[in-house]
Write a structure and sequence with these properties.
There is one protein chain. By secondary structure, the protein is an all-alpha fold. The protein has a domain of about 90 residues. It is built from 8 helices and no strands. The relative contact order is 0.11.
Length: about 160
């Protein structure tokens, strides 16, 4: 086994352990549900991705309905990522591009979820105010946003930082 493989498997193991710790700290039966999603992701990564793709847009609502300490979006994603990392750490040799299609499916689900969140923000804020804030963000004035547009502002900052 090459050094790269040892380091990669060690990194996957660290991600898997951290994911298990995050999911295990959910209250009550939510921890059991998160761990079962993690186990599903170990056995069938596509199954875990599909469950997350279906439940991701409902994460904030499910968190409120189930009296979770916050939105369930992050624990859902952490469960699948930890399961895939555990599979990569202990499973068969990795194949290049093995996770490309599931990662794209997850990215599309996240983008779709955020599109719904922005539509709700437009209704809550009003079309005029939302348009003003969105145009200020699009023109690069990230620090002058007066209202919360979710994670769009930090994402824009990160993307701009990567492009420079």
């Amino acid at each position: 086994m090459r050094l790269y493989d040892v380091v990669a498997r060690g990194a996957f193991l660290v991600v898997a352990v951290l994911g298990v710790l995050v999911v295990a700290h959910l209250p009550g039966w939510l921890a059991l549900a998160g761990l079962s999603l993690l186990i599903l992701s170990i056995a069938q990564p596509w199954g875990g991705i599909m469950v997350v793709a279906g439940l991701l847009p409902l994460g904030p609502s499910l968190g409120a309905l189930l009296h979770a300490p916050g939105a369930l979006t992050e624990p859902l994603v952490v469960s699948v990522v930890a399961g895939a990392a555990c599979r990569s750490a202990f499973g068969r040799d990795r194949v290049r591009g093995d996770l490309l299609v599931p990662a794209l499916a997850l990215a599309i689900a996240v983008a779709s979820s955020y599109a719904v969140e922005l539509a709700v923000a437009r209704v809550v804020m009003g079309p005029a105010l939302f348009g003003t804030e969105a145009s200020a963000l699009a023109s690069g004035r990230y620090f002058f946003a007066n209202h919360d547009l979710g994670s769009l502002r930090p994402a824009a900052l990160m993307i701009e930082g990567m492009c420079r």
